[in-house]
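Class prep. Sample record?

___
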Amino acid sequence: MKTYSRMKAIRLILIFNLLFIISCSKTNEDTKLFADNGNPFIRFYLLVNPNNEVIEFPEISGGITASSFYDKQDVKVLKIPVVLSAANLNEPVTASFETSITGTIDLDISPTETVSFNPNKLVDTIFVKANNRWDQNTIQELKLKLTSISNSDIAIGIQNTSESNDELTISFSEPILQYTFESNRLEITGETNEDIFFKVNFPLGYFENEIDESLIFSFLNGFDYTLSKLNQDDTSITYKISLNESINNDDVFYQTIINLEDTDNYTATGNKILQIVKPIKTDRNIAVNTASNFYNLSDIFYRLYGEMWNDFNQDNVCEWGFFFAFAKPVVVDASNPNAILFDDMGTADTSDDIYHHAFQVGFRSNRADLTTNSFNLKRYFNNETNSFAESPGFDVMPAIEFFPENGTSTTNGTMLIIPQFLTIAGRNGNSYNFGLSGAGTYMEISPGIFELKFELKLTNDEIFGGTLTSQYLMYNTRDYPEPADINAPCIIDYDL
């Protein structure tokens, strides 16, 4: 009964917040006007959070009021809601608005003069897109004003003594634009004409005429391919790589590296290096599904636990230090030779089936904007930022690959820290790329309890002066034996 009551309360709160977004007004007077079925009104309903970010559907916030002024600092398409607040609407309604531009900014505004409503549609949207960069030495501004409406019973703007929201001013500040690879590593099978897709994200938008692949990318190619732009939207561009040769020799490791470069107009952030690899193929029985011992999707707080040999106190005494990280399966395509079916979604349609890698596991925070502590990497540094946008390298996906003894053992084998480049940044804005690698063994030390024993290498010349090597133990449960001290160098922490 308690669970039902709590869920019912949550649903009621969500419904209330949604109604608040659609129909509530700036003051108690406005709310009363609507609640009492008073005179209906139309207004601009642009919501801006404290970070100067426009809130778009389906985001909701009951604590933000509509803005009459917005300082636009990105180049994404601006979506301006125009809301008709009416308890009962029995016929279609149109409203006219006018625009005026100060400065030389080139804007596409759609629709141009009229918004429309009907009993099933009480919100229309005006889209504003800047086509090119604008002159920062002069004022660049757009003003919109609601001027008329087809139903004279509907007021233009809120009828109160505060802001009526029938006018809206948009100023355009100089945008400081960034871009990042969506992921840092892709695996391929290596067949001729194989297509590989990757995405470059522009969180603040971009100008299409400024994107020149010969400037934004640099390459270290390990195989022959053709790169082409596939499609794009407001904040991302998808590229396709098509293999021009077969690189499916099972005994050879193939790799191409694409770097995202800083340019005059865009700063590379987050994942700046993309690895495209064809690993050495090892015969393994996917039915062993070693990776499944190291994650639990029924528990979102499931984690792997570890000990790291360190001297973070910097007192010349080495000791084991406890840490944990949220462990996740690695989702792969059905064509992956190590794919094992996780969920057929209860249908005969195979297109929506979900496959996991039978021998890989990764680490990822449960929150999209934050990071987990893969391999205790956060203890390497003193002033790191935990933001995924700036330090995606703290989430390592995939992170570990297992190689069962003889390809069939369910209890022991060797393990690899999957080589890759990690981007980690400091709170001071400094950002660095670190090379990650390592290897070790794993063993079931008691029924259902696995121990991983490995050496991890982290490389960066600027911060470390080379490569740091550290010793680790990891377990798939919190209940593991206390580790004995070892005779090995240990790790201290560093400033970013």
